[in-house]
Amino acid sequence: MSVQLFDLTGRTALVTGSSRGLGRAMAEGLAKAGARVILNGVNAARLDEAVTELRGKGLDVAAQAFDVTDEAAIKAAFEELDRTGQQVDILVNNAGIQFRRPMLELETADWQRVIDANLTSAFVIGREAAKRMAARGHGKVINIGSLTSELARATIAPYTVAKGGIKMLTKAMAAEWGALGIQANAIGPGYMVTDMNEALLSNPEFDAWVKGRVPMRRWGQPEELAGIAIFLASAASSYVSGQIIYADGGMISVL
Ligand code: NDP
Questions:
Q1: Could you list the residue ranges that cross the membrane (predicted)?
Q2: Which atom of ligand 1 is nearest to the CA of 19?
Q3: Does ligand 1 lie within 6 Å of residue 197's CB atom?
Q4: Angstrom distance (rounded) from CA 95 to CA 82
Q5: What is the pLDDT of residues 193-207, one digit of tens each?
Q6: Would the CB of 41 count as within 6 Å of ligand 1?
């Protein structure tokens, strides 16, 4: 065993939804482990800001703005990467959205929007990346699931369905792509301090509920996913595929 196992020098990672939040923290971690990291988001100004900040830390990062729900834009982005000789060795399917609405009030279009952003995006981007990884005989796909990959919570039905789907999509990718040299795994974060949870974080009752129910008695910080991403992206996980690793302060064990 050596720490070299975690070295990502010479690898390129594409992390979707990495202008902020969990994606940004995983992108920074992968870059610190030696990877060249391509950041992604839809808000170009926010993306540029993230690139500038990470470059300021001496990290090798670039930007590729596209909407993960726009298949034409995804294909164009991969074609541009091909044209410019950039191979994606590590794909982190992280971009996602969430909003709270009871199912009895949920429009079908809003259901579809959540499924598209959180689940279909991972299939489409995964497929485009895997075609290229297969040609080289290696690749690592890391999908971002959630506690809700395992359990349902009220008012976030399409999100729960999408994240449950992420768990099985990861297994399907592992089943189909293992022979091509591609490993697929997932990370299932618990309650994390990001913009996605802004309303919950500022709600004292919800904050107390999280701290009361999470065995570690606190929310997770985005940086706490970096080590798992590095593990799943590196040679350290060379015989791991189809797994979902929960980073939830122990919550899934007690709910
Ligand atoms: P944030 O809302 O903080 O950040 C979302 C990121 O995704 C941003 O970079 C945003 O880009 C990008 N994004 C959103 N929609 C799209 C799109 N259509 N195309 C491209 N990029 C997009 O979310 P988190 O960091 O909290 O969540 C990241 C992932 O982790 C999500 O999949 C989420 O479901 C999952 N997760 C989060 C948990 C949490 O507690 N926070 C718990 C479990 C899972 P832009 O800045 O351009 O809007």
A1: none
A2: 9
A3: yes
A4: 22
A5: 999 999 999 999 999
A6: yes
